[in-house]
Amino acid sequence: MTRKQRRMTIIGGSLAVLALAAALVLNALRDSIVFFSTPTMVAEKHVEPGKRFRLGGLVQPGSLQRGDNLAVTFEVADGGAKLPVAYKGILPDLFREGQGVVAEGSLDAHGVFKADTVLAKHDETYMPKDVADALKKQGHWKDDYGAKPAATTAQGNPQGAVR
Amino acid sequence: MIAESGHYALVLALGLALIQSIVPLIGARLRDVALMNVARSAALAQLLFVGASFTALVMLHVNSDFSVANVYENSHSMKPLIYKITGVWGNHEGSMLLWVSILALFGGLVAAFGNNLPLSLRAHVLAVQAWIASAFYLFILVTSNPFLRIANPPIEGRDLNPVLQDIGLAVHPPMLYLGYVGFSISFSFAIAALIEGRIDAAWARWVRPWTLVAWIFLTLGIAMGSYWAYYELGWGGWWFWDPVENASLMPWLAGTALLHSALVMEKRNALKVWTLLLSILTFSLSLLGTFLVRSGVITSVHAFATDPTRGVFILLILCLFIGGSLSLFAGRATALKQGGLFAPISREGALVLNNLLLTVACAVVLFGTLYPLAMEVLADFKMSVGAPFYNLTFVPLFTLLLLAVPFGPMLAWKRGDLLGVTQRLLAAGVAGLVVIAIVWAWTRGGSALAPLAIGLGVFVIAGAITDLAERTGLFRLPVATALHRARGLPRSAWGTVFAHAGLGVALIGIVCETTWNSEYIGTMRQNEVAHIAGYDLKLDGLFQRQGPNYREMIAEFNVSRDGETHSVMTPSKRSFTTRGSSTTEAALLTRGASQLYVSLGDTTAEGAIAVRIYHKPLVLLIWWGPVLMAFGGVLSLSDRRLRVGAPKPARAKQRLQPAE
Description:
Chain A: It comes from Bradyrhizobium hipponense. The structure holds two protein chains of two kinds. By secondary structure, chain A is of the alpha+beta class.
């Protein structure tokens, strides 16, 4: 094999692997990514039943009901719309009424969001970032939602830390 | 006083870093030995001052000095001592201080043990180290000073995030940072080589041990983080493809590629430019990881606080270093001479394939991590890329890689004999097939791919053993001879065997855990029994207990199998009053490599408690694999050729060993 042929073999091999990876990524992007929606977006867009998405918003105070064998229902609201959510399992430690939540699942035929995961990717001092951003964008962000998050921002500067 | 001294020491360290950034470069230009040697003393002094600064912060935390904002926000006087110390890096400011301390530690090590380096190379390397250090000292002093005082000191602190009050915090972040930051050394060597315009096999011999050290720590750090998430978060997951995890996986993939390409460079003086590029990319990915985690662009347990100025500052550092180093690379790389011819089918060829697959897999993870962020900024919609994406992209690429792993070490340098290697790997292949058949026949349910994946894992392990058997002549020669040859085998060859076998072990663990994991989720009352995977768990009762800074509710489970009592498991739920939050402490029962996992949910009004019980078959293999890999790394590190100043092999007999 000449030097050129060797180089071509290696370049060809690299291109083949890259093409394979690109094909895999494009294929995966078609059906494995999950979009984020708020109840208002769900109401506007008419998401079809069975399509997976992430639902974010605030747990409507007073809506949490516990059924038999760890079944729970609650409503997720974003100030504009509400969406009933059904979940079976143990809620995360940080799940509270009036606090932000992100759930993953899909709508059933009756328009109930069947969640298979309830995420708790936030600590007790702030809201999930996705939820806070969405609420702000829709103009539903109120400072009392932000009571806790605001505390975080203030936390960096407690009682007039000397900067 | 302690806080002010710590702050002052940090400012002095910045001053030293600035001197170390400039003076050695001038020295190298003027060929002035004294000026070049400034780098060495500056690096050591810098280590001293950062160490003092870090010690000051540790003392403030241990003394519970709540007049310091950082201590007030993250500590509590009732917190156990170990968490007072680990809490130092359980927050943004402290963790950045740990980051620069480790950077200074590596700089100091190069300064102290780099006596056999050419003087100008050492000066350049330490200068580049100091550039990075200066940038991060500035970052800490400007945006995240841990030594800020509070005007009216409160009496009690706000306590550390309860999730972090665990022994994992003592191990995982320092290990991970030793890995992340350790790659700065190969980066600095690469930049120094580009500045000097000279690179050779000796360069690779200096860089490899540093890369290996960083890689070992990163491997252990990632594994430890994964195990911590597994037992602490209470739902038995060990990898979530969370952007923060990806941020640590990417430097690991690139660093693994770097280890292998540096090998080619060291042995065969080939792939020089590529190795340089990988050194730059690996550390760039470490910086990217720091940016992703520390800037608050993603929310997770790792992002302690969000402050936009910090994000912008780290982004600037990121652009400066990545942009600068890549431009320098683009400008100077062509000047470096290429060398070392090899046929596509050869050890070098196999290592090129390894590099190709690792970097492409790394690129896929990078894409999956950044795509949602890019979409959010550019197209203004939110989405998440989770496990399904990586299962469809990362997994096939890694499968290809694992298929190729056993072939690599058995191919000869320069020109290999693929057919011959295939014949020698026949036994390993047959072992894999037999295991596939057994698993297929034995198990019901689960994915049809699972037996195949286990077979692949067995093939990788058997391949590593075959390699060892071939080298020692086991099964061909008398046992005594084989043993003698095994003793004479270079440590790095043993390292390869262990590291590669570790891959197979981890794969088997991953497949078993995901496929045959059984779970029981439900509410239980006293004396109720849950059945799972042949075990009976009887809830004996619930007890309250007072811990140092929390109250906990403990559930006691009596675990029996076939009527025979095995053990008692006591998962608990802790509530921390200061932060008003609770954590779930899972109970684990280990049987061989399998584990029984119990975690608690809420109590209902009627006094029943929600429980989650998992049986996870062979789950521990997931972490034993990386431990084996790291052990392989340690063996390879102790190889005589990497030891500084090690004498050349004296006996001619040893030279007759098969070329490693």
